[in-house]
Amino acid sequence: MQDKLREIVRKMLSDGDIEYFVGYCQGSEAHRIVPCFVTEESEVEKLVWGPLCLQNLSKYVLRTRDLDGKVGVLVKGCDARALVELIKQHQLERDDFVVVGVACEGQVDPRKLERELGVPLEQVGGIEDGGDEFLVHVGEETRKVAKEAVLRDKCFFCKHPPSFDCDYTVGEPEPFTIESDRSEFAGVEELEELPLEERRAFWRKQFERCIRCNACREVCYACYCTECLFDRNVPRWLDRPPLLEENEIYHLIRAVHLAGRCIDCGECERVCPVGIPLSRLYKKVQKDIAELFDYQAGMELETVPPLVNFDLDDQDPFL
Amino acid sequence: MEKKKITKADVTRWLDQIAEKYELIGPTEDEDVVQFRPVNSGAELTLDYANSLIPPKSLFFPQVEGLFSFQKRGKEIELEEAGPLERDRVVVGIRKCDVESLSLLDRVFLDDVEDALYKERRERTALIALACPTPPRASCFCTSFGIDPLSPKGSDILLTDVGEVYLVDVVTEKGEQLVAVAESLFSKVTEKEAQDLQPPPVEMPELDLSELREKLETLWEDGYWEKLSLPCLGCGICTYVCPTCHCFDISDVGSETDGVRYRCWDSCMYNDFALMTSGVNPRPTKRERIRNRYFHKFSAFPSRYGTNYACVGCARCLVHCPGGVEITEVIKDILAKEGVSEG
Predict the structure, then answer these.
(1) Which domain holds residue B176?
(2) What's the predicted TM-score (pTM) here?
(3) Distance in Å, alpha carbon of B181 to nearest chain A alpha carbon
(4) Would the ipTM clear 0.95, i.e. be above it?
(5) Of A40, A57, B32, B299, which residue has the fewest beta carbons closer than 10 angstroms?
(6) Is position A274 within any domain?
(7) H or E stretch including A247?
């Protein structure tokens, strides 16, 4: 698959179709795959693909707005949902960028993998797909790790936007499936059953350790505002010091702003250095939007997001 | 310098006794994250660890601290300054890179204008450092900056894990006082025994940084910074987990008549960091911001304070960068540059 990918990118660059391609390449340790920006044909060989290509690269496509040419990008099905939303939210035109869709067999959650292996990730020498399991090289050994144990949470409920056309495909991108008795909103339901005070206590414990590095915001495909309200000082919506009350407000405002737009890419939780289970918060927002409006973000280009929709016949008594 | 040893079980007892006299702070694990926190007993600590997420600089220069509170009544303004530390403090488990970072922060907060809060915390805190394990983490590169991860320099006591026991270097008078808290738990080691127990030097991949500054300073306009900035998301992780970053912002929380003036960490990676009231931003894009970070570490700080570099090779930024920017790769790229490219 890597060869096919490299071939496609090489051709796009030599034909002058794109200014650069955003894909993945190897970081300084085997387990660390990092985004890379390929401008020269000579760099194409750096491109890799595998179960540790975690980043949602769609965010990087926004830069195409500042360029004369196009950006090419490699997307997993889940990431394509961000592109659908960026078009729907009028941030990008479909013709602004070139999409290479890739067949994904599930992505590894590094924190789960480390726990499962019982050794630091830096000892992982490589990882390959093996159907229901991953083959993980640790030192001289190859250890078989069940996908069920180490997949990113979102991979259990993989969704692709069915109507989104990729310009190129590597493999046959289709939603990944795995046999599992997990239910998508179990984590939210568990919290919903708690009394209000306990629910609050749960989140306060999480937000207490937030260092407000803004990584969850910066990595979010939907945070494209030129000036974020959190950064405004006249008026000041949020105080700068990361005190608990401010952190709570920060996360709640983000969650509400993402209602109807969150595509469950899980990037906020992945990048959080202090391990706040943000996906659980955003799952709640997704669940509410699904229940109230029967809507899932990022699935079709044609439907109108519920929170920007206006209907004169709306019977909601609140209005 | 005197050498002693203490069994691992006795270290916990010793720390228990320290906790009775001092505020004891050390690495603890909660929700899979290791952080320095105050504890009441030695058993709460996680001494078998690589390093903390947030460096212990936060114990001297906290992410948030109230400088004073204010109350305005008519024309009268009452100010109440932050009080002194309640007790002297003992920080246990600090790694050598972080000890070294404090000597760099000392230059910022104690040279010229003294920062009273920082000064008090430094003077009233003893450091029980923990020598690094062999092998170290794969990403560590402190030796490139001439730091020896087994050296007691800068700490009051150094503990070296040699299996069943810790080898104990008592470095300063403060260190002697801490040993005196439970002298009977320690036993003397002869010079010969100490030599036998001492682990071999820690080996890690070393970068030759002798030409780094000179080379970097030719690259201000290089196209490299634009390319380097592409994966950068503009979050503040690299600066918040950095043991030598020290920029802060001051803001009032409360109302105009009643509130607290806080100092909290700021990050040069943020868009509004250099933004001026006029609306001018001298570092308008990520290119200028990321360039600033590396120039500050490897050129501006050394030039101002006459130090080697303002990085201690802890690799926290490398490990936690969500965009995959790796400082060791940046250094290698700079060193490999021949002339300036447009990019």
Answers:
(1) 2-197
(2) 0.94
(3) 33
(4) no
(5) A40
(6) yes
(7) helix A244-257
